UniProtKB/TrEMBL annotation, chain A:
InterPro entries: DUF5687. This is DUF5687 family protein. Pfam families: DUF5687. Signal peptide: none annotated. It comes from Winogradskyella marincola. The chain crosses the membrane at residues 23-50, 62-82, 103-129, 141-161, 173-198, 210-230, 280-299, 305-330, 351-372, 378-398, 419-438, 444-466.
UniProtKB/TrEMBL annotation, chain B:
GO terms for molecular function: ATP binding. It comes from the Bacteria. SUPFAM superfamilies: P-loop containing nucleoside triphosphate hydrolases. The lineage of its organism: Bacteria, Pseudomonadati, Bacteroidota, Flavobacteriia, Flavobacteriales. This is ABC transporter ATP-binding protein. Keywords: ATP-binding, Nucleotide-binding, Transport. Residues 2-233 form the ABC transporter domain. The keyword Cell division does not apply. Pfam families: ABC_tran. SMART domains: AAA. It comes from Winogradskyella marincola.
Length: 492, 239
């Protein structure tokens, strides 16, 4: 049976038009994966000597255990945003003679093979080997190592439980932030020392290998919880039963001042508000807004203008990156209809542009309080906002014409906790890094004012050329019209 | 109204549609029948410029559809559910289409109110999203949306499928009215021979992408079509 599933997965992956058309992206993903493997490997081999250098009088093994708490928290956060439970189209399988439990075991098993579970191994195993070479007892280190590997898997399954719970709420990342925040708070304010608690737990296992049973039991427990939750979802009626929500229509007549693009803007606003996936990209703006608070309070970044330039681009552009990336895939479900309607492509695209521009302006205005950390930061944010409007928004629109992946806005698909994956953030990186580089170069050779001026200048150029740029972008969309219609009418 | 000339569509060497010439005059109700894979939806997709013809072209009211977009204001269509926007209510959807076709809310309301019978009280004022409606009700909403803005050409792919008997009968009346009293050119495809012969003045049979019959509807047409399709069944059995 598993053989058949693997076969299906393979075909689904390689026969999708997404794969065929975004080879470059896949290459990039592999590159990033290798890059991370390299980082983790060097951490694994290098940590021991780093610890010895930084804390010459302490036992590096104890130090490592003390840091485990932070690692666990970061791992959990990363996974929440980057890792999703593998999606499998189960509907056609349900009427076939396959046990439901087999399907669920397969999906969960597949998730255990995720890259996120292998990555830590590249650090854990070399580090353990180094410890043993250093003279630590093998009987101590081996249980410790296995305990860590088990914990990685525990986090894997815990993440899905959190995702399943939070996908029901309107603020999908709130539960996680709350959990991590509380744990971190306990540590930070010295109420409960989480670091020593976690550290001692691992020390305990290494001193008394029998205790490894505890994480094992936890792992089984989390697996069973996931298993039960998924199996309960595997009944067609829970997927098919239409959960009819009463429509709450908001008054959007204020968009009429935008003239001929008003119908599209109203449509986009409804799109964002009425679909779970788009909604979360709107809520993610809160993260963007608060990101500065996190960054500017760190002593390391406090006086760094480079950090400010990154925060500026990131916080004013977070919606642009999140939403803009999937233009026009948001409309993929009814793209055929749009194409046969009496619309001007240019209006359709301009509506998206105005939406992104508004988000940048709103994010900038909401970020004005950051002036508390110095006027330079506000100036930096302003320059970043102009750059985002003038350059990044156009890049997003242009990039959209290469978009060939359909987005199913329908929330009922089983196993699909819609959200964003790693690919999305990787596309976002150059968009955020290029202005950072531009600023850094000008800042380094001439000065802060020059750095800001260059960013603003480039941004303003983009705004001035808006009409021209839109024209060529529109042409790009027209040229790839048939390809897009074809790709969007495929299911995967 | 619609002229098709030397039209063909080939996918990877397989020709799925090949029409030398097909002219549909203004105000005609035109029916397209054929088995699965005969090329009905392909023809409609070409007519709406959703796919590119391999050779030839379709001219809609003197506009070559894959060269200019000027056919869009007077042409409307409902091909399948992908023409609906799931997260809108039917009213919002109608208004949106109305906006695109230069109709204000009052115009749209005036039009949709004529179809209260057709909607059978299940579409308007229900505060439900289109994605939460049943397949049949989605279809009703899509068909009516295709009537917004006084189009001169209306294309409906399989409009009778998924509809309940009462609605099928009402829909037939609506299509007849459009062609007879308002001079609208209506193109309909269907697997239901009875319905197309009831509704259409002219019926074209497609088979493997070729036009093999072009009939003016008269009382014997249904018999003729039935004979044709059961004949092709017999021919297949012999093979």
């Amino acid at each position: 049976m598993i053989k058949h599933f693997l076969n299906l997965e393979w075909k689904q992956y390689f026969r999708s038009s997404y794969w065929q058309k975004s080879l470059g992206l896949n290459v990039l993903l592999v590159f990033f994966a290798l890059w991370f493997v390299l980082i983790f490997l060097s951490l694994g081999f290098g940590l021991l000597s780093i610890f010895k250098e930084v804390y010459p009088n302490q036992d590096p093994f104890v130090i490592a255990n003390g840091l485990l708490f932070y690692w666990l928290m970061v791992d959990l956060m990363m996974r929440f945003f980057l890792q999703k439970l593998p999606v499998m189209s189960v509907k056609p399988l349900l009427t076939l003679p396959i046990k439901r439990s087999t399907i669920v075991h397969f999906v969960l098993g597949k998730s255990a093979l995720s890259f996120f579970n292998f990555l830590p191994l590249f650090a854990i195993i070399p580090f353990s080997v180094m410890l043993i070479k250093e003279g630590y007892e093998t009987t101590q280190i081996l249980p410790w190592m296995f305990a860590l590997i088990i914990v990685v898997l525990i986090i894997n399954f815990l993440n899905f439980i959190i995702e399943a719970l939070s996908s029901k709420t309107d603020l999908p990342f709130l539960p996680l932030i709350a959990i991590v925040g509380v744990l971190y708070g306990l540590e930070y304010f010295g109420i409960v020392s989480m670091t020593s608690l976690v550290g001692n737990a691992f020390m305990g296992i290494s001193n008394n290998p029998v205790l490894i049973v505890i994480p094992l039991v936890l792992l089984v427990l989390f697996y069973v919880i996931n298993f039960k939750a998924l199996r309960a979802k595997l009944f067609l009626d829970s997927g098919l039963k239409s959960k009819v929500t009463e429509v709450k229509a908001a008054d959007l007549s204020w968009t009429n001042r935008f003239g001929d693009i008003a119908p599209f803007m109203q449509l986009d606003l409804k799109l964002i508000w009425r679909n779970k996936r788009t909604k979360s990209s709107a809520f993610i703006m809160i993260i963007g807004l608060l990101y500065g608070l996190f960054s500017y309070t760190q002593p390391v970044y406090k006086d760094s203008l480079y950090a400010a330039s990154f925060v500026g681009v990131f916080s004013t552009g977070i919606f642009l990156i999140n939403f803009g990336q999937f233009i026009p895939a948001w409309d993929s479900g009814y793209y055929k209809m749009l194409m046969s309607q009496n619309i001007k492509y240019e209006q359709y695209l301009r509506s998206k542009f105005v939406l992104m521009m508004l988000s940048v302006v709103i994010m900038f205005v909401l970020g004005i309080p950051y002036i508390y950390f110095g006027w330079k930061i506000l100036v930096m944010h302003f320059a970043a906002a102009i750059y985002n409007i003038g350059v990044n928004s156009h890049i997003m629109l242009y990039g959209g014409s290469f978009n060939r992946k359909k987005i199913d806005l329908n929330q009922r698909a089983a196993f699909n906790y819609q959200g964003t994956g790693a690919v999305q953030w990787i596309i976002g990186l150059p968009i955020m890094l290029i202005p950072l580089i531009i600023f850094s170069v000008a800042n380094y050779f001439i000065g802060f004012e020059a750095g800001v001026a260059v960013l603003i200048l480039i941004g303003v150029t983009g705004i001035v050329l808006h009409k021209k740029l839109m024209k060529s972008i529109t042409q790009r969309y027209l040229d790839s019209k048939y390809k897009m219609i074809d790709a969007f009418s495929q299911d995967n | 109204m619609i002229q098709t000339k030397d039209l063909s569509k080939t996918y990877n060497g397989t020709t799925v549609l090949n029409i030398e010439e097909l002219n549909i005059p203004k105000g005609q109700s035109f029916g397209l029948v054929g088995n699965n894979g005969a090329g009905k939806t392909t023809y409609f997709s070409l007519l709406l410029d959703l796919i590119k013809p391999t050779t030839g072209s379709i001219t809609n009211n003197n506009v070559v559809v894959d060269k200019s977009e000027d056919w869009k204001p007077f042409t409307s269509a409902f091909i399948d559910e992908s023409f609906l926007i799931g997260y809108l209510t039917p009213e919002e959807y109608f208004y949106f289409i109305g906006d695109l076709r230069g109709q204000n809310k009052a115009d749209v309301d005036a039009l949709t109110s004529q179809f209260e019978d057709f909607f059978n009280g299940e579409i308007l004022g229900k505060k439900k999203y289109l994605r939460d409606l049943s397949k049949g009700n989605q279809k009703k909403a899509g068909i009516v949306a295709a009537l917004i803005g006084n189009p001169e050409v209306i294309i409906l792919d399989e409009p009778f499928a998924n509809l309940d008997p009462t609605t099928q009968i009402r829909l037939k009346q609506i299509i007849k009215d459009l062609a007879e009293t308002r001079g609208v050119t209506v193109l309909v495809s269907s697997h239901d021979l009875l319905h197309v012969t009831d509704v259409c003045e002219r019926i074209v049979v497609l088979e493997k992408g070729n036009v093999i019959k072009d009939l003016e509807t008269n009382p014997t047409t249904l018999k003729e079509l039935e004979a044709h399709f059961s004949g092709s069944m017999a021919a297949q059995e012999e093979e």
